[in-house]
Design goal:
Layout (H helix, E strand, L loop, with lengths): L1 E7 L8 E4 L8 E6 L2 E6 L13 E10 L5 E13 L6 E3 L15 E7 L6 H7 L14 E10 L1
Antiparallel strand pairs: 1-9, 2-3, 3-4, 4-8, 5-6, 6-7, 8-9
Length: 152
């Protein structure tokens, strides 16, 4: 499994995405912070190949039955949905699945946060700008993509 250092977790605040370009993934990978949890999706919409991670991060509408039996649409899952910038297909950031019935999905990658090892040689290398390393050490916690793991 290959590891790719994304950077300090504090640099990707909740509701944000950072697109990185490991050598093994030509389209890039978007690393998302959803309420303090990190997820990574391939930056490629399966519909027509758009740069998915440059789309809007938002919520979605869901039907809810009232006590009267009438239905209303309620806004839910704020910050959990990425919308393709070309054709507005919506995908769950956590799973890479479409929010509508479809077999289409976006490849996702495992993400880890790693604590620092102050004073290590690796920490010094990272401070000089090295991005790809076998182990991650930087500041409070570092976001690491685990390429070759994950699913879909």
């Amino acid at each position: 499994m290959t590891r790719f250092v994304v950077g300090p977790a504090r640099e990707i605040p909740p509701g944000a995405v950072r697109v990185v370009h490991p050598e093994s993934e030509r389209a890039g990978i978007g690393v998302f912070n959803v309420d303090g949890e990190f997820y990574a999706l391939r930056n490629h919409c399966p519909h027509m190949g758009a740069p998915l991670c440059s789309g809007s991060i938002k919520g979605t509408g869901a039907a809810r039955a009232r006590a009267s039996g009438a239905f209303e649409v309620e806004w839910t899952r704020e910050g959990e949905i990425i919308t393709c910038p070309w054709h507005h297909w919506e995908f769950e950031i956590k799973s890479g699945r479409t929010i509508f019935p479809s077999k289409s999905r976006v490849r996702r990658y495992d993400v880890e946060l790693e604590e620092p090892a102050p004073g290590s040689a690796l920490e010094a290398r990272l401070r000089r700008g090295v991005e790809t390393v076998p182990v991650v050490v930087e500041d409070d916690a570092t976001v690491v993509l685990l390429l070759g793991g994950g699913g879909a």
